[in-house]
Structure to design on (118 residues):
């Protein structure tokens, strides 16, 4: 399993927040270096069943290192709602209260960002 905070750590302008990580799938929010000044959601599958070892999950970059997939802005709110649903059904080893608080904070940020756009 890949630690989400170790995946392309150089791509972040500041420390990202892990919103969800069940060992197989992760969603992180953070400010990316470059064109984005607002936090964005990224996602990845940390393991891909049936793949040859070593298993880097998906996506991977050209150098065969774990990478992130940027969640399109129009899918951020539905993604966050889906994470709440998943946590309520399968809290697993995650700290449920902390994860829910972070996800709700992100929902508020997304909704505020939508109302600010021209």
């Amino acid at each position: 399993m890949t630690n989400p905070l170790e995946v392309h750590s150089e791509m972040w302008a500041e420390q990202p927040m892990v919103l969800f990580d069940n060992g197989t799938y992760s969603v992180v929010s953070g400010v990316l270096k470059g064109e984005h000044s607002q936090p964005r959601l990224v996602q990845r599958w940390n393991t891909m069943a049936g793949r040859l070892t070593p298993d880097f999950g998906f996506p991977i970059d050209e150098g065969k290192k774990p990478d992130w997939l940027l969640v399109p802005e129009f899918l951020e709110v539905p993604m966050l709602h889906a994470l709440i649903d998943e946590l309520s059904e399968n809290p697993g080893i995650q700290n449920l209260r902390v994860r829910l608080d972070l996800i709700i904070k992100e929902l508020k940020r997304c909704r505020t960002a939508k109302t600010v756009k021209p």
Notes: Residues 96-116 form the longest helix (21 residues). Helices lie at 73-89, 96-116. The mean pLDDT is 82. The chain has one domain: 4-116.
